[in-house]
């Protein structure tokens, strides 16, 4: 590393630290080059690609979503980054984005110390205490700054090489995680209202394992499709379903978050409506029709329990149970897990 040899300095012969040295690099520049080279050498061990901005400390994201206007408020904590042989301080900031494609453009700027201005020997005042920092600006255009966008910053992994920061890909977060969250939250909020949700329709849970809406009694009409809703803290379910083929235990569909049972599980007995028939306005059915169990787990899985063959139908009308409490924080947590 560079060092100043001060052996020639005496009480009568001083060494000036000049801005310009006709004989070579000035003392001030020499000192600045010394620590810059040290940092570059250390970073060579820690940083895989010096052309990328590598987060050395901090710069982590926290975020909040405004449910009123749909904007995203992105807060990034202060920290230090290494770029092209130099350490830069990032002072932190909060940025607001609309729910569209957005980027955080990075730029190098000079921050002045509170110690300035400084008196020179000729009595002039000059600003000399400066810190080169990086600032971020929300922009809809990619790579509009003179430093790689925040979404391209890296972190140091345990194997001493730089890897893309999972939390730093802001443009991907806004176009995927946020959009998915907004859509899912809108669906969840709609489904948590008293408006009935019909299984198998757009935005609603889908049928699983070959289950479908029932066909009804021949010659009578179409039965109610499988539907559920939340009313005053209880989940109500109705409609007829059918399945063709041998089955024992199989999940019919999964209730969305907000409709999970408050109890560890709920178990119901429902009739087999396959043998119900009609002649005109007269209905006939066995005196003791087969019955099957419907098991609803704490995670919302609506599951058929029993053993049946061929084509058969079930009526889920009358099933109701107390719903578990559900908060926005749980929606955000579930969405974050789904996007990770």
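Q: What amino acid sequence fits the structure above?
A:
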């Amino acid at each position: 590393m560079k060092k100043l040899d001060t052996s020639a300095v005496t009480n009568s012969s001083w060494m000036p630290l000049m801005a310009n040295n006709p004989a070579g690099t000035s003392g001030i520049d020499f000192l600045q080059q010394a620590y810059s080279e040290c940092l570059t050498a250390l970073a060579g061990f820690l940083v895989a690609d010096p052309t990328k901005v590598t987060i050395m400390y901090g710069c982590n994201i926290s975020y909040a979503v405004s449910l009123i206007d749909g904007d995203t408020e992105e807060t990034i904590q202060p920290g230090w980054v290494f770029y092209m042989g130099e350490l830069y301080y990032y002072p932190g900031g909060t940025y607001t984005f609309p729910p569209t494609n957005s980027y955080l453009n990075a730029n190098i700027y000079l921050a002045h110390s509170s110690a300035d201005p400084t008196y020179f020997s000729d009595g002039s005042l000059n600003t000399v205490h400066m810190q080169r920092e990086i600032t971020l600006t929300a922009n809809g255009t990619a790579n509009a700054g003179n430093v790689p966008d925040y979404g391209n910053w890296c972190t140091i992994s345990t194997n001493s090489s730089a890897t893309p920061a999972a939390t730093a890909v802001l443009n991907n977060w806004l176009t995927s995680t946020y959009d998915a969250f907004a859509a899912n939250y809108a669906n969840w909020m709609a489904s948590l209202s008293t408006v009935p949700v019909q299984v198998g329709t757009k935005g609603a849970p889908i049928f699983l394992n070959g289950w479908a809406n029932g066909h009804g009694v021949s010659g009578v009409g179409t039965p109610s499709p499988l539907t559920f809703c939340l009313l005053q803290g209880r989940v109500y379910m109705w409609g007829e379903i059918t399945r063709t083929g041998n089955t024992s235990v199989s999940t019919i569909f999964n209730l969305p978050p907000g409709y999970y049972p408050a109890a560890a599980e709920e178990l119901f007995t429902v009739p087999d409506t396959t043998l119900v028939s009609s002649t005109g306005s007269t209905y006939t059915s066995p005196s003791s029709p087969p019955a099957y169990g419907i098991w609803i787990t704490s995670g919302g899985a609506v599951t058929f329990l029993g053993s049946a063959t061929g084509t058969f139908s079930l009526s889920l009308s009358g099933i109701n149970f107390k719903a578990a409490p559900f908060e926005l924080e749980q929606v955000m947590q579930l969405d974050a897990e789904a996007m990770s």
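Q: And what stands out in the fold?
A: Residues 47-179 form one domain.
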